[in-house]
User: Fold this.
Amino acid sequence: MKKIIKKVIILALSLISLNTSILSEILQPKHNLQLSIDFARFFGDEERIFLETYYSFRTDEITYVFDNDKYVGGVNIFLQIREKESIIEAQEWTVPSVEVDTNIIRVGKTLVGLKAFFLRPGNYSISIVAVDFNNPERKDSLYYPLQVAQFPDDRDAISDIELCSSIKQIPKDDNNIFYKNTLEVIPNASLLYGSGLPIIYYYFEAYNLLNEPKTENYIVRTSIIDAFGKEVFFAEKSKNRKNNSSVEVGTVNTTTLKGGTYVFKAEIIDTVKKTAAVAAKRFFVYKPSQSDSLVTLSGGAFVTGEYAVMSEDEIKYEFEVASYISTEAEKKQFSNLVELDAKRKFLYDFWKRRDIDPMTQENEFKTEYMKRVSYANENFTSAFRKGWNTDRGRVYIVYGPPDDIERYPSSYDAEPYEIWNYNSLQNGVIFIFIDRTGQGDYRLVHSNHRNELQDETWYSKIKKTR
Assistant:
């Protein structure tokens, strides 16, 4: 009996030792997997734009397994570019990370990559999913609408701005994905500067500089605008029009900037013709001692204070009312989010992608949208539904206030109904709503808008049954 007990104890100790050994072979991440994405559009050829897509993640966000005296990790990335429902590009690849020193992993080294595509002018969407190679349950995904337009050919033009962590001159290297125009250009996909990375390196291209009638010189102007619209930095230099295109690179030190959101602006100015080509890109400055204008979430994401303090219910409500403009991919992505911080970051990115003027502190698109939501709640709420969730509310939010409303009250033989007229929408559009319950719950029964409910027999539906 004692021999059996002794064998059981030895076996148990062996299993414990084995499990401890197995656990020691896995280095768990310190943070949630956080994929950063940025992109820039450059001139490609007469028919296409050259799109560069940048991505990054950190070593302390992924799982490592010890193998042959080294720690091996990585991220599987799945990318799709769609034009409406058609898939234009679909790629998947693995970004490996192999380290010997665990301190490098834990401190959090940034791994950066680039993918490039030629696209014809059009409206696209880019979706990217990143999956931890050693733990597929850990993932992150991002979605971006993308408008691609050809650069003008009759005046000075400028590419998007690529904000970088490093730019330096190197010998030609076709095997270096970051090599272009005699330079190694390392993008900063997170667009985050400050502590640890105080210097902004920037890259952009100017086109059509020899167009007739041309002047001898032009001015390259770069500036930084803070969240209140104030210019806090600018630099200018005059250049000769020697070539039809030009590469512009430089640096800006963010040491004197407070933590917060900024816009980097680049301009090609002709003071004689009084014309300018302009590009802008939003970036962030993070300083641990300043937390009022930029808030860091537990997953490592950075958002403005408005979203960082929103509750679960507030986040859910705001995305619900935005359902009229959210895509199916965005709805699916949001439904898969579990952590509150992830939902906060999602909503922050959702509105940021739709900001029509990043040069201003205010997101004008969101302001107008939420103003319409408030109006709908105040004027169209019924006994059954909040105003934003009614048919009239939806039409008001999506298309704005109508030019004219014809209101027909209840009569002896007809239910109350309204006809909304939009004179400038598709050469004149109407929406007809009927209140069958008599409690203010007007339902859409007909419209001549090509994407809305159409029923030419709508008038028969307003007749009261006797």
Confidence is low (pLDDT under 50) at residues 1-24, 291-303. The chain has three domains: 26-286, 295-362, 370-462. The CA atoms of residues 238 and 391 lie 57 Å apart. The helical segments are 2-24, 102-107, 305-308, 312-321, 328-335, 340-352, 364-379, 391-399.
